[in-house]
Specification:
With about 150 residues, this protein is of the alpha+beta class. About 35% of the residues lie in helices and about 15% in strands. The protein folds into 2 domains: about 60 residues, N-terminal domain of TfIIb, CATH 2.20.25; about 50 residues, Proto-chlorophyllide reductase 57 kD subunit B (Helicase, Ruva Protein, domain 3, Orthogonal Bundle). The strands form 2 sheets. The protein has a 3-stranded antiparallel beta sheet. It has a two-stranded parallel sheet with strand order 4-5. The radius of gyration is 29 Å and the shape is elongated. The relative contact order is 0.09. The model has no long low-confidence stretch (mean pLDDT about 80).
Length: about 150
Amino acid sequence: MKFLCVDCDRQMSFEERAVPGDGTMAAVFRCPACGRKTAMLANPMETQLVSSLGVKVGGRTVPEANLEGIRTGVASGRDEAFEAPPPTRPPTVRWSVDAVERLGHVPSFVRGMVKKIYTEYARERGIEEMTPAVMDSARTDLGLEGM
């Protein structure tokens, strides 16, 4: 986050940080051109969040190094780096023209939910295309016949 001086359109410089002791934090910024100051006050919850993330209010005191983020990650390592990758995204189920037409007869306020139920049914069974016959099977297998 950066603060800009409205009058000068220049980036304000960090001037001071204060922690009054009541859990809040204040930071003062000054415009290098006109000297105008502005302050930011963070409530206790915001202050705790910023502290827990390891953010240093006031900006850097040393220049940013090339590939700094990568070096940090490599230096500290990650315990989960050698775990199995997350499961792949389930295959897409294509909807035939007849199935889409039939879905159009479902009331609009539940159509999305019905489509999701049928799509999950097809994915779980490795069915690549939704057809009216698959919809009939799903209704029977899922006990949705009375609906």
